[in-house]
Structures are given as structure tokens and as C-alpha cells.
Amino acid sequence: MRVLVIEDEVMLAEAVAEGLREASMAVDLCFDGADALERLAVNRYDVVVLDRDLPGVHGDDVCRAVVAEGGETRVIMLTAAREVPERVHGLALGADDYLTKPFAWAELLARVQALGRRARAAVPPVMRVAGIELNIPLHQVTRGDRHISLSRKEFAVLEVLMRAEGGVVSAESLLEQAWDENIDPFTNAVRVTIMTLRRKLGDPPVVRTIPGIGYRLQA
Fold first, then answer.
1. Fewer CB atoms near the end CB (10 Å): N or C, the chain?
2. For helices 189-201 and 171-178, what crossing angle results, to 10°?
3. Closest Cα partner for 210 from 177, 166, 147?
């Protein structure tokens, strides 16, 4: 899942971004509405975590821009305003969810995960392929009766491959979905992550390389 966090309170923004990364999400971060619009113009995001009271370009205008694009990006608004009319107005702009500050971190994470599932073709929170079980909410992977400890990127790559349901996923697509905008497009990060993922998943091997095209999971 790729997420854009837009929040002008730097410490809060960085804390939210780090928490989402710990849940194996690729997270980009910006602190004002103008920068947010630039990011949204060039990158595809599954979820936007949007502070409503942004300096410069207001959060309402950022939300309108996301909705006008007509894509599958979902928006959760954050605000200090607790009055019902304020929340209703935010939802009327096209936001998919609304959370008031201060909020419980577990609730924000759960809401972002739920919106991420809505941003794509519906998939269950627990996926199973070739005896491998990936539990997204609990961030756990098992194969048979063996628990497999994966890094954040290995977990994210496995999730993308499972979502493809046997289809081939290019290295470029994996970079876009599992890494943030700071990744070097010429990096060998995908190849290295696939190599360690194969080793940890064990035998029989299930991650197949399609030369010159990408990778897929074979049952």
C-alpha cells in the first residue's frame, strides 16, 4: 500500500509516517497543501492521510483535487474540529473517512488499512497461496506450521505478489507499490528483496522470476 501523509505539524507527521512504515506501507510525506498537489500529480496513492487545516492551499482544496481526479485514491481527513457540522462538511467534500485529533494510533492504522482495501480490488485481510498465509492486520506470515519473520519490505513485496493472484508483477510496479518516492529507480533493491524473501519462505520455492518481465507467485 502506498500512502501520502499531509500534515503541517512536523513531529506528528513524522510519527504517523514512521508508524505506517512499520506496518509495511510505502509512505511519502509533505507539510503543506501546495506540495501535496505536486505529489498527487505525479504519484499514485492508495490512501491520503490529510490534515484539514493546512497552510497555503487548504486541506479542503486538496481533497477536492483528489476527488476531481476520479481515481481510486481514498482520503482520510484529520482535524482538531470536533463539531458534527465540521465532520459532515469534510465528508461532503468527498473524504472517505474523518478522524479528530487527538486520536488513538491503533484506530488510525486500522482506518488506513481499511481504506487501502477499498482503494483496490477487494481482497480478504488474510490471503493464502501455496500454503503461505499472510495476515495483513496482524502483520504475520506463516507457511504450514512455521512462522516466518519478514522485514517490512519483504512483507510488502509478498503482499503485492499475493494480490496479483498469480499474475506477473514487474520490478517497476513493485518499486512503485512497496517503496516510497525516495528510492533510486536504478536500484537493485527489488532483486535483493526477492532473493531474501525466497530464502525465508523456503522450499518448495514459490516466487518465480519471469526473465525480462518480472515476478509471480506460483501455487
1. C
2. 90
3. 166
The helix (run of H) or strand (run of E) holding residue 143 is strand 140-143
Distance of CA 124 to the CA centre of its chain: 16
Contacts of range 128-135, beta carbons closer than 8 Å, 24 or more positions apart:
129/162, 129/206, 129/217, 129/219, 130/206, 130/217, 130/218, 130/219, 132/158, 132/162, 132/201, 132/206, 134/158, 134/159, 134/162
* 137, 196 Cβ separation under 8 angstroms: no
Answer yes or no: are the C-beta atoms of 44 and 2 closer than 8 Å.
yes
